[in-house]
Amino acid sequence: MLNVTCASCSTINRVPEDRSVDQAICGHCKKPVIQFGAITVGEGNFDNHVLKTDLPVVVDFWASWCAPCVQFSPVFEQAARGWEPRVRFVKVDADATPVISNRFGIRSIPSILLFYKGEVVEQRQGNMPAGLFDQWLEKQVTSLGL
């Protein structure tokens, strides 16, 4: 069984490994578990979406006033639509979530962290063009054996 967090209501769902995650329906809200796009999370639902799921999760720590963050946002969203459900994509407003930002030592933005099974496995600062971001993701996911 895989623990996969619902994109709509943040409930953790257990999905049989032999079932397609992209077709799973949340047992709580009855909506699709996967939304094929980046999910914005905050202090209240970060752990469920990032630390308690069995899927790799790429987290973009950003802020609305940060020009490189704004430039990277469409790249991140495009990757989310292409990579899900293999990888989940989460956006965290670093200004609105100081506890989370401090917890992971975010000192510059954008900061991109890759989590797997509740642990940070890779981190990168700064925006990237789509091709470079996709290459980075492929390398990281392959190194996880996925």
Structure, described:
The two termini are 16 Å apart. Helix 2 links the parallel strand 4 (57-62) and strand 5. The chain is built from 4 helices and 7 strands. It has helices spanning 46-51, 67-83, 98-103, 130-143; strands at 2-5, 12-15, 39-41, 57-62, 88-93, 111-116, 119-125. The mean pLDDT is 95. The chain has one domain: 3-Layer(aba) Sandwich (Glutaredoxin). Helices cover 29% and strands 25% of the residues. It has 146 residues and is an alpha/beta fold. It has a 5-stranded mixed beta sheet with strand order 3-5-4-6-7.
Q: State mean pLDDT (0 to 100 scale).
A: 95
Spans of at least 5 consecutive residues whose pLDDT stays below 50 are none
Tell the overall outline: globular
Helical fraction? 25-40%
Q: What would the CATH topology be? A: Glutaredoxin
- Placed side by side, the strands forming the largest sheet appear as 3-5-4-6-7
CATH class: Alpha Beta
What's the number of extended β-strand segments? 7
CATH architecture level-2 label = 3-Layer(aba) Sandwich
Assembly type of the chains comes to: single chain
Query: How much of the polypeptide forms β-strand, as a percent range?
Result: 15-25%
The Rg value, from CA coordinates, equals: 14 Å
Number of helices: 4
Q: Terminal Cα separation, in Å?
A: 16 Å
Keywords: Disulfide bond, Electron transport, Metal-binding, Redox-active center, Transport
GO molecular function: metal ion binding; protein-disulfide reductase activity
Family: Belongs to the thioredoxin family.
Domain Thioredoxin: 27-142
